[in-house]
Amino acid sequence: MTAPFIRKNDQVYVRQGKDKGKTGKVLAVDPDKGRALVEGVGLVKHFIRPDRSKNVQGGIMEKESKVPLSRLMLYCPECAQGVRARAKKLGDGTRTRVCAKCGVAFETGK
Ligand SMILES: [Zn+2]
Fold first, then answer.
1. What is d(CA 76, CA 33) in angstroms, rounded to the nearest whole number?
2. What's the pLDDT tens digit per position in 15-54?
3. Model's pTM, two decimal places?
4. What's the 4 CA to ligand 1 centre distance in angstroms?
5. Alpha carbon of 74 to ligand 1 centroid (Å)
6. 4, 36, 54, 105: which is deepest, by most CB within 10 A?
7. What are the CB-based long-range contacts (under 8 Å, 24+) for 39-44?
8. Residues flanking ion ligand 1, Cβ below 5 Å
């Protein structure tokens, strides 16, 4: 089982591709396509055509594109690196994700 447990608002580490080594926040996950939108990762340039009627200035804009989940790992603040996550069942039956290295829980505010 290699599927990373990546969800919206997670902090992730990019382990492959041109953004290798970057970290960012997950803005959206597309489980059907196995891709995620990560803040500042997978930037592609968009050329904007000037449109006077909409007061839009032309130019180049950078926008995130979805990157495959297989390139991402959860970022553990304790380990300060990308790590694998393990599922863990808590005493009250809820499942959480913990760092496979140091055991810190990734879920917050629940
Ligand atoms: Zn850790």
1. 25
2. 999 999 999 999 999 999 999 999 999 999 999 999 999 9
3. 0.81
4. 15
5. 9
6. 36
7. 39/64, 40/64, 41/14, 41/67, 42/17, 42/66, 42/67, 43/19
8. 76, 78-79, 99, 101-102
Question: Tell me, what's the pLDDT at 94?
Answer: 86
- Distance from Cα 25 to the centre of ligand 1, integer Å: 17
CA of 105 to the centre of ligand 1 (A): 9
Check: CB of residue 6 under 8 Å from CB of residue 25: no
Q: Which helix (H) or strand (E) holds 99?
A: strand 95-99
Residue 101 CA, ligand 1 centroid: distance in Å: 5
Backbone dihedral angles phi then psi of residue 46, each to the nearest 5 degrees: -115, 135
Contact 29, 5 (CB under 8 A): no
Task: Extract the tokens encoding 90.
Answer: 């808590």
